[in-house]
Amino acid sequence: MATTASQAGPSGDFTLAEIKARLPKPGVPWEDIAVPVLLFVLGGTTGMLRGSRMAALQFAAENTHRAPKNVQGWYFYQKTKNYRVILGGVKGAAWRSFQLGGLGVLYVGTREAGVKIGMREWSDVLAGTATGGIISAISFPSRYSHNR
Questions:
Q1: How far apart are CA 114 and CA 130, in angstroms?
Q2: Under a CB-based contact definition with an 8 Å cutoff, are residues 114 and 123 in contact?
Q3: Could you give the CA distance from residue 135 to residue 100 in angstroms, rounded to a whole number?
Q4: Nearest-angstrom CA–CA distance, 125 and 113
Q5: pLDDT at 81
Q6: What SS3 class is residue 64?
Q7: Exposure pattern of 108-118 as b/e (b: 16+ CB <10 Å)?
Q8: Which superkingdom heads the taxonomic lineage of this protein's source (predicted)?
Q9: CA dist., res. 125 & res. 132, Å (int)
Q10: Residue spans of alpha helices (H) in the chain
Q11: pLDDT in the model for residue 1
Q12: Cα separation of 116 and 32, whole Å?
């Protein structure tokens, strides 16, 4: 006995658009997810570049006094340097991506809190001011930065 479309189940007579319309929608707007994710990716990219460059310079500074004297030593030196550069890049990417991703979550969370308390028109200003205030309270300038 063959089953017909109406007997196949609750979705037998629906089109794809109707099925998509019936699916539950997330309660979070797209922008609230995109901002932290994009900042996380941007932080990972810049952290990888900066961390690997700093690791390469540090390795070169620490090992210039014992330069390799033969071909085998040169290959070992380059291999060790490459591993240190990769490790420094991964560490830098992790640190910077969590910094910027957290900054995005802080901004979006503060903006949504402003909307929830009834300050819809001022929520972006509130979020920017609060985020900037928290960053300036946490980060301290270098001891030598006033000489520049």
A1: 11
A2: yes
A3: 11
A4: 12
A5: 95
A6: helix
A7: bebbeebbeee
A8: Eukaryota
A9: 11
A10: 16-22, 30-63, 71-116, 123-138
A11: 53
A12: 14
pTM of the predicted structure, to 2 decimals: 0.73
pLDDT for the residue 74: 92
Query: Closest Cα to residue 36, out of 144, 110, 89?
Result: 110
How many degrees, rounded to 5, is the angle at CA 95 between CA 89 and CA 100? 120
Place of tokens 């990716």: 41
The tokens for 17 are 């658009």
How many other C-beta atoms lie within 10 A of the C-beta of residue 127?
Answer: 20
Question: Hey, what are 3's tokens?
Answer: 């089953």
Average pLDDT of each block of 10 consecutive residues along the chain (148 residues)?
A: 56 75 79 93 97 96 90 94 97 96 94 90 92 87 67
- Residue in the block written with tokens 């402003």: 114
Q: How far apart are CA 78 and CA 85, in angstroms?
A: 10
Q: Can you give the pLDDT at residue 11?
A: 53
d(CA 101, CA 93): 11
Looking at residue 36, what is its pLDDT? 94
